[in-house]
Design brief:
Blueprint lengths: L8 E2 L2 E3 L3 E3 L5 E2 L2 H12 L9 H8 L11 E6 L10 H11 L4 E7 L5 H10 L4 E4 L5 H12 L2 E10 L3 E6 L6 E2 L7 E5 L7 E5 L1
Parallel strand pairs: 5-6, 6-7
Antiparallel strand pairs: 1-4, 2-3, 8-10, 8-12, 9-11
Helix pairs in contact: 2-3, 3-4
Length: about 200
């Protein structure tokens, strides 16, 4: 919340056995709204089960605004235990709900499903971080928010190469943020010299 600018919008969703929201719609990141959100979060108790599917469904429910970069930061310390518990089904349902949102995952502790978080972040063109027991969660989240405040290029695509590219990974290129590297793996066929041209939206 501290990293938001006044023209940003935010939603806060908590999930245990049930899903709760700070507000039913978007809040503007002005000082008063952020203060109320902090007070609301201070009263949240960690209890009940873990309804991951319902939380993601609510987070992805609004249609994306083409004039903004929509980002979901998903923080969990557990595995799905209520509602939909099949990891494969959760990944499939989440992929079908993604419009143009970027999904960033945070796994806290050692009782998280890494396959679930890795798959969600890959499908959502985001990243995933893991915070071990005793590590500072706030530092890790702050590091992510500093990064995602400054996307350099979005919707990246390779438009020209001197060789035939095959088996690229990741298949859908992630966004490029200021100060970050973009690493692609793959194979190519043939030989040739020249530039690899990547385009994106600035």
């Amino acid at each position: 919340l501290a990293g938001l600018d006044e023209d940003d919008r935010f939603r806060i969703i908590t999930f245990s056995s049930v899903v709760r929201q700070f507000r039913s719609g978007w809040s503007q990141a002005v000082r008063g709204e952020v203060a109320e959100a902090r007070d609301w979060l201070a009263r949240v108790d960690a209890d009940g089960s873990t309804n991951i599917q319902a939380a993601l469904q609510e987070a992805l429910r609004p249609e994306t605004d083409s004039s903004r970069v929509s980002q979901v930061v998903f923080l969990t310390d557990g595995k799905p235990t209520v509602g939909e518990t099949s990891v494969e089904h959760i990944v499939e349902l989440t992929s079908s709900m993604l419009d143009d949102e970027r999904l960033f995952g945070f796994g806290v502790g050692h009782d998280v499903n890494t396959y679930l978080l890795d798959s969600l972040a890959e499908g959502g063109r985001g990243t995933v971080s893991y915070v071990g027991p005793g590590e500072n969660v706030e530092e890790s989240v702050s590091s992510l928010t500093r990064k995602i405040r400054h996307p350099a290029l979005t919707d990246l695509r390779i438009v020209e190469a001197p060789v035939m590219l095959e088996d690229g990974y990741p298949q859908q290129l992630p966004d490029l943020f200021y100060g970050e590297d973009l690493v692609l793996f793959g194979r190519y066929r043939g030989d040739g010299a020249g530039g690899l041209v990547i385009e994106g939206n600035r």
